[in-house]
Structure formats: C-alpha cells, structure tokens
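Re: weekly structure request thread

Next one in the queue (385 aa):
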Amino acid sequence: MDVKEKAFAWVDANKDSMVDLWKQMVTIDSGIGVKEGGMEIGNLCASILESLGFTIRRYHFEKCGDTIIGERGDLSKPYPILMGHMDTVFFKGEPLKRPFTIKDGKAYGPGVLDMKGGDCIALSALKALHDAGYDFPCKAIFVADEEPAHAFSNNPEVIEKEAKGAKCCFNFETGFTDHDITVQRKGCWRFFLDTWGRGAHVGNAPKTGRSAILEMAHKIIDIENLTDYDKGYNVNVGTIEGGTVANAVPDHCRIECDFRYISNEDLPGLKAKVMDIVNKVYIKDVKTTFEESVGFAVMERIPGNMELLEVAKEVAKENGFPIPGPKLCGGGSDAAYTCKAGIPTLCSIGVEGSRNHTVEEWADVDSLFQRTKLMIGILLKVSAD
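Done, posted below.
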C-alpha cells in the first residue's frame, strides 16, 4: 500500500479511538472564560502533537488557556498550517448538562460541531499520516478564546505573525451539510450604544422625565434598517437592558449590536452611518454614547483560496467524496488572520452538521472519518509540491 492507502486504512481501523478523542474533547469544559478547561484541552492537543514529533511553544494569557503552537520539520521553506480553536461558545458547566452522546448517526454536545470535531480531524489526519510513515514539515495552531472574538488575548496578532512563511492554511471550523468549503467570510463589527435620560415618577411627575428607552427604541429601528442584503451586510441588535421598574421613567438603556459586512472597504461607511444615528436626538435632553466592542476581520477571498479549493475538489473526485464548492460564510473565524497575512486558506473543513451556538448543535459522525480522509489527501498533495 502507498502512504494514502495506509493512512486511509488507519482511519478505518481507528474509528472508535477517533470518536473517543472527540468525546474526550467535548467533555472538557472549555467554555467562555473557563481558563482551567482551556488549559486542559490545550495540554491534550500539545501532548498528541508531541507524540507525532512536534515541538511545542505556548503563548500565555491571564484569562484564557494557552495558545498552542506545534512545529515539525524544516520550516525555512513554505509549509502547511493546521489551525483550530479549542473553546466553545457556552459557559461553565455546559458539558455536565449536555454530555457527548451519539444517536442515529449524529453526535451531540457543546462544541461537538464548533469546533472540537474539527480539532479531532486535524489531529487524526496528522496521526494517520505519521503512522503511515509520512511526517512532513508543518505547523499547528490551536487557540483558546476564539468564541468571544479573542476578548482575552491578542491571538489575531499571534496568528498573523505565526502564519508568515506558510504555504497554505486549513482552519477546521464548522463544516456544512452541503459539503462546501469556505473561501471567504464576512467581517464582524460589534459596538454598544448607551442612552442617558432623566428619571421621574410616572404618576407624580411624568413630564419631567426623559425616557432613555424611548430614545433607544427609535435608534434600534434606525440601526436595523441599515441591513442591506443586496450589498452583503446586515446588522443585529442582539441585547438590550434598561430601566428599573414600570412606574419610573428609565434614565438609562444599553444595547449591543453586531454588524456583518463583506469587504473591509465597507466598514468606514457603515461606521459613519451608525455615528449619524448616535448623534441624532429623538427625545429632548437624552444623550447617546458609543463604545466599540470586539469583532472579527473579513476573511478576504484572496486568489490562492480558490486554487487551494481546486486541490480539495481534486482529492474529493479521486476518492469518491462529495465535491465541495466555494462558500461565502457570514460567521467570523481565525481564517481572517491567515488571509490577512497573505496565506491561502480553506475554512469550514471540520465535521459537518448544523445548529452550532445552540443547545441543538449536532454533527454527522460519518463526516468525522470522511473529512479526515479528505484532509489526508489534501496534505499529501500540498506537502509534496
């Protein structure tokens, strides 16, 4: 058997152990802000990489787990990167509420799709090729705070720095049931608005009050109306809080907004429109303040992304797998930062499924094995060039 046949045979013979690793990862509580879980899953990934001949470097952060950098071979020449995030969008205790389970060919549990299944694929593809006698120069990057848009780290800068010199990158994010692979992602810009009014008793002195909630209600409609699907951007007012009791005019209201856009060129104009809304006054004497939050850069569709997709399509065709098409995805990912570094990148090559970021999140179990084989074939081609 050649290397590919040996590696594919490894996948067929080790399906149970692959699922066991998947379960182990999902069982580790690495939700938002759970540093101890982030450290535990990072140590697990590091130990597996070390067993495959990688040397490990770490970036340490106060409020999240380490970023794990695995390096193998001579990286003075262009090499592939395998990348993923080890955290989930949920909060502490979620794996106890919803442990990893498999039913009717679907796996369930926090992060089973987004993206611990993808992490498992990355490590399994490397393991299969290693056991087939094929070790090639490459780098692995695993981060621990992607879901809160790196609120606890400078990982965007770390990723961009670590990507320099690479040939290509594969980000094992959530895969889709249509089998397409992401070559472009929208950017994400988040911000807060606060309105500051004047409190009053609604029975005794209603005219002296200035409702912060009423002012914000007008602004929410204005903000939501900035959505333009034809131009590829949309805004969501995602959270709101304000007021104290029903018989008091509210003196404060706060919202958090999420703006998605396709091109970096769109963002200055969108920001200007939001500031026009901030500066407009509907209720006399109510003030509005603006605060930028976290976000994700655009994953630009650089030319090399499409060339890399052609490699994936070739491997899929050769092995009878579904042929992936190109996808523009609305969700952000760390692929934005490898593309920013000029590195051709494919994203969404993890397990396939749906409903990520919800308690109904599920992943197709068979896709764990097929996507691992797809990745084996891709790595054999890009590492042989």
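The two ends are 21 Å apart (CA to CA). Residues 365-384 form the longest helix (20 residues).
Next request, please.
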